[in-house]
Specification:
alpha+beta, Beta-lactamase, five-stranded antiparallel β-sheet, 9 helices, 11 strands, globular, Beta-lactam_class-A
Length: 304
Amino acid sequence: MKAWMIPAVVLLASCTSGEPRTIVIPQVEDPNDFGPQGELLVIEAQSGGDLAVALIDSAGEPLVTVDPDKRMAFCSSFKVALAGAAFEAAGEGVIDLDTSVTYTRDDFPGYQPVMEAKLVDGSGSATLGEAVDAAVSSSDNLATNMLIEALGGPEAVTARWRGWGDTVSRLDRYETGLNENLPEDLRDTSSAMAMANTLRRLIDGSILAEEQADELARLTHKSTTGLDRVRAGLPDGWSAGDKTGTCRPEGMPNQQVNDIGWFRGPDGELYYFAVMLARPQLSLRDARAIHASVGQVLADIVTD
């Protein structure tokens, strides 16, 4: 599969501050054919934000990238790597996924649909295995915090990622503080390439046992939070899975809209992607549509 590496010229477009910013647009003989990377850069300009994209094949080879090494907030998209850390720790006997954790409404960090449904007379309980499911498939924040705590805290989670060879991703806080996404803040960040590669290695069995890797793929496929993001741009019938992330509520500053995942192309090969959109000048609905547009470009790459 050919990776798109294209010479570039400079175009000015608006940014989130309302001042000019530099967008790199591919320089091609036919101005109507920018190529995939150019299409992504045009999509970035339309968003008014900063877009980072990485699409890699099953061997980890990049097929198209836009700012793949730029450090950006991962928001909730880190939860798939957190689940991977929990599966790894369980395989080592460090934690037991059958361990039950009790909680009350006072423990709610905000957005905990699965754990809230388990409340009876003001208290509830869930196993760590149930927390893995809830964190990935429903982005449940209380379930996420349960897993972080069980693994020894943010530093311990980051240490596991380092053990996988991910030298970029770092977890510093719990939900929901990790969604603050202040400019130039290195906390709770990663890059598109790091996240795509980590997901690839989690699902292909490089890190996890086959049963655990298959379960992680199943949970991302089961997730419904990203059906209107990258997966919305893929052809009908393609098998896919993803984990979304959204920093900051609608209308608040420093918003970010992410999606990391995988899909199986028409050739039967698995492809892995990470799409991170920082500070778009759009509604959340339109930012999700930007992701769908990116998904169309990614699908075209593997079918050309």
